[in-house]
Design goal:
The chain has 348 residues and is an alpha+beta fold. It has 2 domains: 68 residues, no CATH class; 189 residues, Glutaredoxin (3-Layer(aba) Sandwich). It is built from 16 helices and 8 strands. The strands form 3 sheets. Strands 3-2-7-8 form a 4-stranded mixed beta sheet. A two-stranded antiparallel ribbon has the order 1-6. Helix 10 runs antiparallel to helix 11, helix 10 crosses helix 14 and helix 11 crosses helix 13. The longest helix has 29 residues. It is elongated, with a radius of gyration of 29 Å. The two termini are 53 Å apart.
Length: 348
């Protein structure tokens, strides 16, 4: 085991110092013999111990003697930790490529991750287990997630066509123009990064160069949603699509979404269910709907047509786009699973 440790150490030191390259070659030769179940050169082992611990024996005899005696055991520990660290780096790198985060189980667990509201992997697996009637233990969930991440890596390099993922009733910020490419956002109305992305899209005037549309996807959590009123807001957005405001420059659902974003903290932390719905109805009044129209929209929000639309959106997000981070935006042939700034949007 000492030859394995020495190979790691001297191979790295040999990059910077020619004096260690000869030892690295000897360590490699020893490592090959070990792999072939042949004994390593005893003199080489002693040479390594002397090289690595020689000075320490004279300056700190007790510590040097201890390390000399237990060098093989310490080598085993070092190699185990090195292999474990290497595997952790590989795993995190795969996650970063696949999910744009090195820890898909926690949005705060990776400093390299972009700003986003993570869809908890365990929550999605819980939903899937309910559908299939199966259960997943912790280890199976981890292995399944890593295997899934490997299959997703090629997705980072393919061309993403938003047209392939449009729902049955897309709503565009500006009237659709066939000459413009389409851009598709996956958003949760209660996610603060979705609100920031909406602001960046307006500031960059990306809607002038693209047909901007969205899918409202309330992030699941256990048997409910991550944010208290996401599903309610999504229902009203879909209902408003069915009853648009006549002669509106901006579609009514986009107007409603913009008002929700502006009042997002109140929806997330202050309003209860009754207050949230009353505020949504007040927004509709402010937008120009009369009382009868608001009652029709409210009834539609809890109807089968809206429920089917939201179910379709969930299917597109979970089974086709397969995102675990919100917002996800498909724009310019690329996919971003995070908030992107105005400069980036201007370049797309």
């Amino acid at each position: 085991m000492l030859c394995i440790l020495s190979f790691f150490v001297f191979a790295i030191l040999g990059i910077f110092s020619a004096s260690h390259r000869e030892l690295a070659k000897k360590a490699w030769y020893c490592l090959v013999k070990k792999i072939q179940f042949k004994p390593c050169d005893i003199n080489f082992n002693e040479e390594l111990k002397g090289k690595m611990l020689g000075k320490l024996v004279f300056t700190h005899p007790r510590l040097g003697g201890f390390l000399y005696k237990w060098a093989d055991v310490l080598s085993i520990i070092f190699v185990i930790l090195s292999v474990w660290s290497l595997l952790a780096v590989v795993r995190s790198s795969v996650y970063l490529l696949a999910y744009d985060t090195c820890d898909p189980y926690s949005e705060e667990g990776c400093s390299l991750a972009g700003d986003s509201c993570t869809i908890n992997v365990a929550s999605l697996s819980f939903v899937e287990s309910i559908r299939t009637g199966t259960t997943l233990d912790w280890m199976t969930l981890r292995v399944t997630t890593f295997g899934d991440a490997i299959t997703r890596v090629p997705n980072r390099f393919k061309n993403w066509d938003p047209q392939a993922f449009l729902p049955a009733n897309p709503s565009y910020y500006l009237p659709y123009e066939a000459s413009k490419p389409t851009a598709l956002e996956i958003i949760d109305p209660s996610c603060k990064f979705c609100a920031e992305l909406f602001k960046n899209i307006k500031e960059s005037q990306a809607y002038e160069r693209h047909n901007i549309t969205y899918i409202a996807y309330p992030i699941p959590s256990g048997e409910g949603q991550r944010f208290p009123h996401s599903l309610l807001i999504a229902r009203y957005l879909e209902a408003v699509k069915q009853y648009p405001l006549p002669n509106a420059n901006t579609p009514a659902d986009w107007q409603l979404l913009e008002r929700v974003f502006a009042d997002q903290e109140q929806f997330n932390f202050v309003y209860d269910a009754v207050q949230a719905e009353n505020i949504l109805r007040q927004f509709l009044t402010d937008m120009g709907y009369d009382g009868d129209a608001i009652e029709i929209i409210t009834k539609a929000a809890y109807g089968d047509r809206v429920a089917q639309a939201i179910a379709e959106h969930s299917r597109i997000v979970e089974e086709q786009i397969e995102t675990i981070k919100i917002p996800t935006i498909l724009i310019g042939g690329r996919r971003f699973d995070r908030l992107i700034d105005t400069d980036k949007l201007r370049s797309l």
